[in-house]
Design a protein that fits this description.
123 residues, alpha+beta, three-stranded antiparallel β-sheet
């Protein structure tokens, strides 16, 4: 039986509920981005991906360039959330819950290994 025939027989599921992405969307995003994580903020669902070291250094360089040019009119958390939130695709952050941008930026940082819950212990 072909994949198309199976999709016609087995309906798509919504593991994060009706307001979240379908399993086929999740599978597609994982195929594109590798590992992804779901974040739940104020009753809304977001999917984020990891930031690579190269992306981090490129991002830092772009921020430094903007600052050197006198452009300080940007929000780092919005920049990170825009780059690494993969679902929903287009987000108007002004319409989202107030803390969404900050929490998503923190979650991207944790997922990417910049903030570890416990990587060392005091002896």
């Amino acid at each position: 039986m072909s994949d198309k025939e199976l999709k016609d027989i087995i309906p798509d599921s919504f593991p994060l509920g009706d307001s979240g992405p379908s399993q086929s969307e999740i599978d597609s995003l994982k195929g594109t981005h590798g590992g992804i994580k779901a974040c739940f903020i104020a009753g809304k669902n977001y999917l984020i991906r990891m930031m690579t070291r190269k992306e981090y250094t490129d991002f830092q360089n772009s921020v430094n360039e903007r600052m050197a040019e006198g452009d300080a009119d940007f929000d780092i958390d919005v920049e990170i959330s825009n780059r690494y939130t993969v679902w929903p695709a287009n987000i108007d952050w002004g319409q989202e819950p107030g803390g969404a941008v900050t929490v998503l930026a923190q979650e991207v940082s944790k997922f990417s290994g910049f903030v570890a819950d416990r990587e060392s212990i005091e002896l």
